[in-house]
Amino acid sequence: MNELSKSARKAIRDAASIAYERELAQALRDLADVFNEWKAGTLNAFDVSDAIHEFHQGTARELFKQYEAGSTAVPDFGVAGAVIDGFIKLEEIAPAGREHIAKIVEAMASARLG
After folding, report:
1. Planar angle of CA 19, 82, 101, nearest 5 degrees
2. Cβ atoms within 10 A of the Cβ of 87, count?
3. Among 4, 55, 47, 53, which residue's Cα sits nearest to residue 29?
4. According to the model, what pLDDT value does residue 1 have?
5. What are the residues whose beta carbons fall under 8 Å from the beta carbon of 87, sequence distance 6 or more?
6. Selection from 47, 26, 23 nearest residue 37 by Cα
7. Which of 11, 78, 91, 111 could form a disulfide with 66 if both were Cys (CB 3.0 to 4.6 A apart)?
8. How do the domains of the chain map onto residue ranges?
9. Please, are residues 63 and 23 in contact by the beta-carbon 8 Å criterion?
10. Alpha helices in 1-114, H assignment, sequence order
11. What pLDDT is attached to residue 113?
């Protein structure tokens, strides 16, 4: 792909921050449900411990890699995936990076349908 401008990279990183927080919040709500089941007596302490371990080693780690891996990398594919999954809207991405992300979203959506 073409080299991105500094403003486009910033727009994409800003969008990544928003999407990361939203996706992490959803994952934490899911983890909170496990605690609620434990409080209700439907899960035991070992189940909760396993869920915490899975969250830390799985979900949290994957989200970090998707949005934050490498301080010089632009997380454009992570942001595009977040658009497809509904964690951020194209309109929320600053114009400088929106077109770049829209192209990736279109390619990813076509690949999923193909």
Report:
1. 100
2. 20
3. 55
4. 46
5. 19, 22, 23, 26
6. 47
7. 78
8. 6-113
9. yes
10. 6-39, 45-54, 60-68, 76-85, 95-113
11. 73
